[in-house]
Design goal:
Blueprint: H1 3-25, H2 41-50, H3 52-81, H4 86-120, H5 125-144, H6 148-164, H7 169-184, H8 191-215
């Protein structure tokens, strides 16, 4: 299996993790205020006391699994883009690695926040709330509360694809819209709306990129022409 096809499957996994995250945001986690500026810390800790595994699962899927798949996609797209725009390809590689690192870091901190809150809530609920809120703020700062790093990477990939004619028009268009949404999360007043635009746009973009990598005739072989079992 070529690196390009591995990247295609990775892109679809990224899309699936976003869909998984959105499904929980609008259902199970909606009463807690996740994804908004009015998250209810005490309610979150109460939820953690009753179902800590569910939050850990959510963090693991939307952050850690997503970051691993994202790293593979970054490598595949670098291979795709470097054939026509070596300069842009290197920029996208660096930016993609930065984003994947931030995402996996946010997931690890998110899981530690759940574990610490669950432990502290056994003896001091108010301290558990304070610790969770502090660690959650760090998680949001790394990427859970803004999409600047992702917006920049997707935007650069789309521009490189446009200049090098290595990506389709649909992928490029979706990428530019998604990138704009990510960059606009910088502004708190429209952060929720911009975040939704980025998230929904990213799902469509990951699917478009995944299909492009899987079904395109061009392929980037693995080192030494190896095959993956």
């Amino acid at each position: 299996m070529t690196l390009q096809k591995i990247g295609g499957f990775a892109a679809l996994i990224c899309a699936a993790t976003y869909l998984f995250g959105f499904a929980f945001l609008v259902s199970t986690f909606a009463p807690l205020g996740f994804g908004t500026n009015s998250i209810d810390g005490p309610a979150v800790v109460a939820f953690i006391q009753s179902q800590p595994g569910l939050l850990i699962l959510w963090n693991t899927v939307i952050y850690i699994i997503n970051a691993i798949a994202l790293a593979l996609l970054v490598a595949a797209l670098h291979g795709r883009l470097k054939s026509s725009r070596t300069d842009f390809a290197m920029v996208t590689l660096v930016l993609g690695i930065i984003w994947a690192t931030l995402v996996i870091g946010a997931g690890m901190i998110g899981n530690v926040a759940v574990e610490r809150a669950a432990h502290l809530a056994q003896t001091d609920v108010s301290q558990a709330v304070q610790v969770w809120q502090t660690l959650h703020a760090v998680e949001l700062g790394l990427g859970g509360g803004n999409e600047i790093a992702g917006g920049i990477w997707i935007g650069c990939v789309s521009l490189a694809g446009l200049l090098g004619r290595t990506l389709g028009q649909i992928s490029i268009g979706l990428g530019l819209v998604t990138a704009a949404g990510g960059l606009l999360t910088l502004f708190p007043a429209i952060g929720d709306v911009a975040g939704a635009v980025f998230g929904l746009g990213a799902i469509a973009w990951f699917i478009a990129i995944g299909c492009s990598l899987l079904f395109s005739r061009s392929a980037t072989p693995l080192p030494h022409g190896g095959e993956v079992a």
